[in-house]
# Entry
Amino acid sequence: MNSGETVIKTANLTKQFGDFVAVNQISFEVYKGEIFGFLGANGAGKTTAMRMLCGLSIPSSGNATVAGFDIYRQPEQIKRQIGYMSQKFSLYEDLTVKENIHFFGGIYGLDNQELKTKSDALIAQLGLQSEAKTLVRELPLGWKQKLAFSVSVLHKPKIVFLDEPTGGVDPVTRRQFWTLIYEAASNGITVFVTTHYMDEAEYCNRVSIMVDGSIEALGTPQELKTQLNETTMDGVFYQLARGAKREA
Amino acid sequence: MKTIKFLLQKEFKQIFRNKAILVLIMVMPIVQLIILPLAADYEVKNINLSVVDQDHSPYSRQLISTITASGYFRLQGYHPSIQEAYPLIEQDKSDLILEIPQGFERNLIREGKQQLYIAVNAINGTKAGLGGAYLTRIIRDYNQDVRMEWIPPTRFQASPAIEIVSSNRFNPLLNYQFFMVPGILAILLTMVGGFLSALNIVKEKEIGTIEQINVTPIKKHHFILGKLIPFWVLGNVVFTLGLLVSWLVYGIFLQGNLLAMYCFIWVFLFAILGFGLLISTYTDTQQQAMFIMFFFMMVFILMGGLFTTIESMPGWAKMISRLNPVSYLITVMRMIILKGSGWIDILPHMGIMLLFSGILNGWAIWNYRKTS
# Structure
């Protein structure tokens, strides 16, 4: 799965809001095709870091390249190469499932033929055939999240950023969701995902753990467990995040 | 170009799905155009008049009946003295007190002159001013009649007098509706366009969907155009409905060039929609956008020359109204609808409006940030 090609590289990436250092000099690399878990307590700076990598937020200092493009000079080129699913559900609730797929596909430049085949395939994959013409507002949360994920990878991005994609979702749907993630990864899409569920952390190829804006640990789940002498990822997370000064 | 197609499809679907707003956009202008011009005119009627007649002579009675017959005044009652009438003004039951002193008839005939006393309740400035003026004119006319009775007209008038005969161009009967209807239509267009566009992008900010847009490689001007065009189309629908109502209900139809009118409206709509979008790029919530837009709407409307003429404003206010796109719209609408102006006459206004729409939209695109 890991071809060794670097798709995200950050060096001392920092974001400051006034006196508050939300992200403090983080440096890491993500390789093509891997599932990279970006863990951390609430308020540790995960979302801020992710927004910088997506070109939604300008860093205060430090450098980063995403898909080979510089985040300062080429944010629009980056946007062509990535998919993003924000923590807050942000598809259009007053459009139907199909209309959302069409709209976002169209914005990414898919032509009508592609849109038709892709949206049919996607709706079938999600088992939403009977709901294709339902307003998204009326779908249960789990389906919304699966739809949002599918829309974010519709244009075959090189990297997809998922910000707590399974927050508030039941265990069965979470399992289905991770099946979708694995499918995307097997198609060569690099997955950059944040989560609070430690069982999900075990599904990742590598994880990093952020505490108070800095990355405290980075490695495969097995490496981290050995390093910190813990048997579970839960233990690893607890040992690191316990020292956090920030109030969540 | 294809991106804009997808944006337009999405916006129109959302507009047509929001039935409450759609009905409001269509019905509000019609209802307001039917109700407001009938209620809001400058003519003052039903002025409450209290009379203190201490003369009780045929002349004083004749004067009073002349006044009440004018149709502007409603006789509130007779009072023996001015002291008893004053409290009525304090209680707002009376707008004017006319005091006819004792010996009115005698003095008028014998001495050839007599003074009357009018007390005006100036709480409502317009009503007081106009009421006082009406009353003065009626008394003067009455005076003329009395004079005619006592001084037989001679071939050579003893006192030279200037008599003014005026004719009102473009609106011969000084019909207030001809004046108000185009103005109210202009305001409606401004409100619909300004508020809809101001609230739209902010709404996407509030519910978070703008994030999903900002993370796509969409071009800023495509996004803004995708927002402008649907409301521009709606604005045209509102204007056309308004013209139809003016024609069917008030019998007002364009004296001037219809195409020139529409062309000006097209440019104006781009300007006011651009202004709304500009506000939405500076605000984060619909509440903020609403209040800021409301502030500007008040200025635009009250300084637009609909209720008060711009020419009589102080110098600094005139400067401000030059920066007010609505004042140009009201002027041009009156020019074309009432005066029958054509292309050449509105050209300078058109130029200014093009400038407005260019600057406002350019500013909105410049200030719309995909990255924060």
